[in-house]
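# nightly structure sweep
# worker-07 picked up a monomer target from the shared queue
# config: single-sequence mode, recycle default, output format = structure tokens
# input follows
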Amino acid sequence: MILRLLSALLLCLCTLAPQARAHEIRPAFLQIDEVAPQRYELLWKVPTRDGMVQNIRPAFDPGLTLTPVPGETLVEGFVLFRYGLSGGTGLPGTELRIDGLDRTTIDTLVNVALLDGTHHSFLLRPREPAVTIPETPSAWAVVQTYTRLGAQHILEGVDHLTFVAALMLIVRGWPMLLKTVTAFTVAHSITLALATFGYVSLPPPPVETLIALSILLVAVEAIHLRRGRSSLATRWPWLVAFAFGLLHGFGFAGALVKIGLPQTDIPLALLFFNIGVELGQLAFIGGLLALVVLLRRLVALPRAAPVAAAYGIGTVATFWVFERLEGMFF
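# output follows
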């Protein structure tokens, strides 16, 4: 019964999945570098939506003057602006705010690098569009910022969640579920770290296409399992999770590159981004299982429910495969 209820929940997820796109975590990004005492250079990266640039911009205390540098650049769904910032006071102790952010649904990641080696990282949200830059550095700010970004990324990455859901259809028993989730975690952590530090790289379009294909293949294995045909994937799902987890790690790395990293705190930011991903993934799994427990006494499902869920996942994954193939060549 639990498996049937879980299958129904996964099928509901699949009906929503075509309306979402992978890696929709596209915050704005503000890099502030102090190039001389009380003089700064700013890189302001703003996401576009439906071809339109979000009407938001950084704003500072009246004692600081923000000067635009001509020459905007369009790069993969973002517009890059550059500014100069100067004044009679430095940034520490002053307020930074993003004008217009409260009228949007996007976040803004801010990295500040000062001449004395001090670095700050902040995540501003529509409900919290301003921050006071502290006098002293705080590693805790990096921890909070990138843990939140990691959790947000996995919970908005419908393709990654769909892959996890498909894995749950071929796993039997709690010990195997734990082993499978752990294998997926270890694998994508490896490639996320390697790609972030520049040891290996793959272009995003093929990675996205192969991620969709991995979902399709696991869905097919789930159908074979329900029809009595055992395979490597159903006997050792943790091995399949590890193999495809290596691929999904490149997807996480691509998102992290778009988000941006504090150059002097890369290991810390990477670690807690990954922790955030795992917290979000565990929250997703726990949420599904909690709903199963809740609905267990209320719903009776047909025996074909697992197969229907697998077909639903496979259909969505097939759509993604062809959509991303089209994006690669056209």
